[in-house]
Amino acid sequence: MNGKIAFQGELGAYGHQACAETCPDYAPLPCPTFNSAIEAVRNGDAALGMIAVENSTYGRVADVHSLLPESGLNIVDEAFVRVHINLLGQKGADLAQITDAHGHVVILPQCAGFLTEHAIRGVVSSDNAKAARDVAEGTDPTQGALASELAADIYGLDVLARNIEDQDNNTTRFIVMAREPNYTRRGDNGMMTSLVFRVRNIPAALFKAMGGFATNGVNMTKLESYMVGGTFQATQFYAEIEGHPDDANVKLALEELDYFTDMVRLMGVYPAATRRHSS
């Protein structure tokens, strides 16, 4: 093993699945929150952190982007995990018995069609794998969990219905974070650069800052804003662009961005995942 990789959730969570698929040489370290997973990397308890950032059905994972700039960590990789949602039940239980299905607030809307069709009530749990563990430890065969097949294996549950997600391309994107950056790699599918910035308080500053990417032919795949410091006047942006900071066009675009901002910080430079272009 090359050390540990921290993820949010319990063993059997989709973050655990992402770790197993992407970093199989690292031992999974379950953490109760994204913040604690980041802290595990920061304090050396884990070498890497697997952090979910967005889902193709649900959208952005709440609060994660506001945690990233203050984490002190660097994005060194990305992973796209196909999320198959399964209804798990106690050994010997039948689908017709299930009245309640427990799952994280993010996962419930992703299989709302199935739950409605079978008159099953969705119940919020703090974690999908915890929901599986709770069902396994309980005695009520009417209670089910929405989780991975990995969770079923770990907690000894039956899979009562497989792949019940509403969208057949349901995918979660994770980023892999480490204490030190690695700018030396070049990926077979190109490179990605993540950054945060805050524009200067001048008219059309954001428009002008974005102009450098357009004129230099740099594709921006993500731009999100969020407030900082509890004030409506301080807005920070998280952006992802295709390319490496050493590429001539990216370097020019970042120089122009720097002129119209009062803060620019690289969050990571990493190879684009193969599934980025097929998910």
UniProtKB/TrEMBL annotation:
<dbReference type="InterPro" id="IPR002912">
    <property type="entry name" value="ACT_dom"/>
</dbReference>
<dbReference type="GO" id="GO:0005737">
    <property type="term" value="C:cytoplasm"/>
</dbReference>
<keyword id="KW-0456">Lyase</keyword>
<dbReference type="InterPro" id="IPR045865">
    <property type="entry name" value="ACT-like_dom_sf"/>
</dbReference>
<comment type="pathway">
    <text>Amino-acid biosynthesis; L-phenylalanine biosynthesis; phenylpyruvate from prephenate: step 1/1.</text>
</comment>
<dbReference type="GO" id="GO:0004664">
    <property type="term" value="F:prephenate dehydratase activity"/>
</dbReference>
<keyword id="KW-0057">Aromatic amino acid biosynthesis</keyword>
<dbReference type="InterPro" id="IPR001086">
    <property type="entry name" value="Preph_deHydtase"/>
</dbReference>
<feature type="domain" description="Prephenate dehydratase">
    <location>
        <begin position="4"/>
        <end position="179"/>
    </location>
</feature>
<dbReference type="Pfam" id="PF00800">
    <property type="entry name" value="PDT"/>
</dbReference>
<keyword id="KW-0584">Phenylalanine biosynthesis</keyword>
<dbReference type="GO" id="GO:0009094">
    <property type="term" value="P:L-phenylalanine biosynthetic process"/>
</dbReference>
<keyword id="KW-0028">Amino-acid biosynthesis</keyword>
<protein>
    <recommendedName>
        <fullName>prephenate dehydratase</fullName>
        <ecNumber>4.2.1.51</ecNumber>
    </recommendedName>
</protein>
<dbReference type="InterPro" id="IPR018528">
    <property type="entry name" value="Preph_deHydtase_CS"/>
</dbReference>
<feature type="domain" description="ACT">
    <location>
        <begin position="194"/>
        <end position="271"/>
    </location>
</feature>
